[in-house]
Amino acid sequence: MRATVGDQLVQHGRVVGQHDKVGEIVEVLGQEGNPPYRVRFEDGHTGICSPGPDTEIRHREIQH
């Protein structure tokens, strides 16, 4: 899993009715885009994440 600053990290809900948790990657702490990542979530909380199998990275689209 590789990411860059500005990409979205989406942690999918693990149980029925649990919503996805979406955040923006504000810092890549691993080498070459690898985890861990510092993520700012929609509620303003910032934390360090090492994504698991229930997580996806949505790459930001580069506008020309």
Automatic annotation (TrEMBL):
<protein>
    <submittedName>
        <fullName>DUF1918 domain-containing protein</fullName>
    </submittedName>
</protein>
<dbReference type="Pfam" id="PF08940">
    <property type="entry name" value="DUF1918"/>
</dbReference>
<dbReference type="InterPro" id="IPR015035">
    <property type="entry name" value="DUF1918"/>
</dbReference>
<feature type="region of interest" description="Disordered">
    <location>
        <begin position="36"/>
        <end position="64"/>
    </location>
</feature>
<feature type="compositionally biased region" description="Basic and acidic residues">
    <location>
        <begin position="55"/>
        <end position="64"/>
    </location>
</feature>
<feature type="domain" description="DUF1918">
    <location>
        <begin position="1"/>
        <end position="57"/>
    </location>
</feature>
